[in-house]
Amino acid sequence: MFEFYFNTKVIFGIGSRSSLTGIISGNKWRRIGVVVDANLGGAQIINNLLDDLEGTTSFLLKAHCRISEPTYNSLEEMRPSFSGQHLDAIVGIGGGSALDMAKGMAVLVNNPKPAIHYRGFDKMTEPVLPVVAMATTAGTGSEITPNASFIDSVEKRKLGINGEAVRPRYALLDPELTLSCPRRATISAGVDSIVHGVEAFAAKKSNPMVRMFAKEGVTRVFQNLAQVVKDPENVTCREQVMYGAFLSAIALMNSGTGPAAAMSYPLGTNYGVPHGIAGGIFLPHVIRHNIEQGCYKYSGLYDGLHPGDSTGDDEDNARRFLEEMSRLWEELSMPNDLAQFGVGREAISVFIKQTMELKAALDQNPFPFYEKEIEDVLDQLV
Fold it and tell me: Model pTM greater than 0.90?
């Protein structure tokens, strides 16, 4: 027996961005707030989208997300622009950071306490505005999740404003919007989606539907991400990456993350490493640890990459999957040490402590992965 949940209306495919005005009109939303990634200001495709939106509404408030890792302080800085405007809905346009900022604004418009008060699950007491999420990267999954992640600048912790009310009501996934995504962000988002899919596939809470979505998602991103990096204008490959990332996000939402994602948080919070890159650094080490402990579930992911090429030996196929990942990581020029980010041995104890605060994610790993295992991985990377 298992449960499976998905509660966002998704419109996927080239040109799906044109559905935005129909959604606004159909819901009779007249006063709209928009949070858009500041890096997209020069993109004509985004400007055209905003022009169309302006022609559909009676009031359009535009704000820019200028931070790569949103903080509770950045939410407070944006809040005054949205307060008292009697908005009907929020539209987020950008990568995971812009979408999370949009979700945060949807909470703060009617919930007057400091943003950090709503950290946790279902802390909102007043209505949350509906959110329409338009992803311009392929990988974070923020467009369908009931979470919005922010850094507490004082405690140096990354914890979210979470709850079903935060989940976007609509997600428009148009691969042409990812054409504006820079190389580094493209890699980070794509790798992030692989982390999602792989850890969801192996998690204790995984189930047959999760594994079906994760396998297909990981396969599509594996087979197309490197080509997107080589040929950024290849919309066909971008579509495959975006679709694969979306499938892995569904898997993650119904299963759970694991040690690689948990370890990414201290690296992002303390050293500014993009979330996807950070998780990708740790993922091969987590997989290797699990295989050495006797977890051969990754054999199913290898079968997705090479159907019919299975040796029939699950351990052998699991190790082959890890080899495939190592080759892809090399092709993407993924970092393979932490020294380049300024992480020294003196930071290990703090790193372990901060990772252990995400014990719920660590608990999802097929085998114990706690202080000792975290230290073992860090010893290999520092």
Answer: yes
